[in-house]
Amino acid sequence: MNFRDGAHKLPRCIVTIGNLGLQLLWYFLQIIVSAWYYISVVGNLFESYFISWGVLKKYKSLHLKNVRYLAIVIESEEAYQISKVVKLLQWLDSIGVKNVCLYDMNGVLKKSKETIFQKLKNAKSIEDISEVVTHHAPGHMTLEFLSYVDGKEAVAKAANLIFVENMKRHNLGGELDVPILLESHLNEALQIVGSKGPEPDLLLVYGPVRSHLGFPAWRLPYTEIIHMGSLNFMRYGSLRKAIYNYTKVHQNYGS
Q1: Distances (CA, A) of 43 to 128, 204, 215
Q2: pLDDT of residue 212
Q3: For the segment 103-119, what is each residue's pLDDT rounded down to a tens digit?
Q4: Per-residue burial over 158-186, b = 16 or more CB atoms within 10 Å of its CB, e = otherwise
Q5: Per-residue pLDDT reduced to its tens digit, 122-173
Q6: What gap in Å lies between CA 156 and CA 113, rounded to an integer?
Q7: H or E stretch including 36?
Q8: φ, ψ for residue 144 (rounded to 5)?
Q9: Residue 165 to residues 151, 178, 193: CA-CA distances in angstroms?
Q10: What Cα–Cα distance (Å) separates residue 105 from each residue in 84, 145, 172, 212?
């Protein structure tokens, strides 16, 4: 009986040892990944400071002709930190970025735009500018404010316009084009209702989520999107690095 009991216990012992080995391997991998993450964070932090101090020479020269229009997406809870938003815009102004779109889902920034304009003396609203905003205007910074509601209303207006135009053609004896709705039709309708807007070359996302958070998709056909982390930990060096890396990438827009 003792021999049989030992024979039955042996496989259990092997399984137990195997499970223990797998747990130790899992914990070991977690330690390696965590260590790599913290080393990466510390490395990026030091790099950001070195860029800010001008130690890394290559980041001093920025070719901003590729950043004609830049969009900033901020998570709505963090958008209440207006002083940080103003600081971010001041950094962009000092770098040389002059055309900026500010977006958050709940319209926090849009409601605070008067405060932002008061603190940025050389900033103007996009509605007040007559020239094409995708060309650099050295005398001032141009700001556009958007929220999720703007995109929703724009699509509703464009859809209604397309519907009305199709009904007019139908009443004149033509055929309805509703089943054949092309992207060009929507773009044209958005342009007519005044909601097409400039297409950002670069979009920087500040917040915990790696998402454009509902920024109008029709304005992002070729936009490069970069997640910058929380607004609470924004750094000048990281901002300059993101813009520098973008300007160094060759953009292929297709045919």
Answers
A1: 43, 21, 31
A2: 87
A3: 999 999 999 999 999 99
A4: beebbeeebeeeeeeeeeeeeeeeeeebb
A5: 899 987 765 555 455 557 899 999 998 876 676 666 666 666 666 776 666 5
A6: 25
A7: helix 2-53
A8: -120, 140
A9: 21, 10, 13
A10: 18, 11, 42, 10
Confidence class for position 88, pLDDT limits 50, 70, 90: very high
pTM for the full predicted model: 0.76
- The tokens describing 85, both together, are 């938003």
Amino acid at 232: N
Total length of the chain:
255
H or E element that contains 227: strand 224-229
Cβ atoms of residues 104 and 82 within 8 Å:
no
In degrees, rounded to 5, the angle at the alpha carbon of residue 151 between the alpha carbons of residues 149 and 152 is 60
Radius of gyration of the chain (CA): 27
The Cβ of residue 116 has, within 10 Å, a number of other Cβ atoms equal to 18
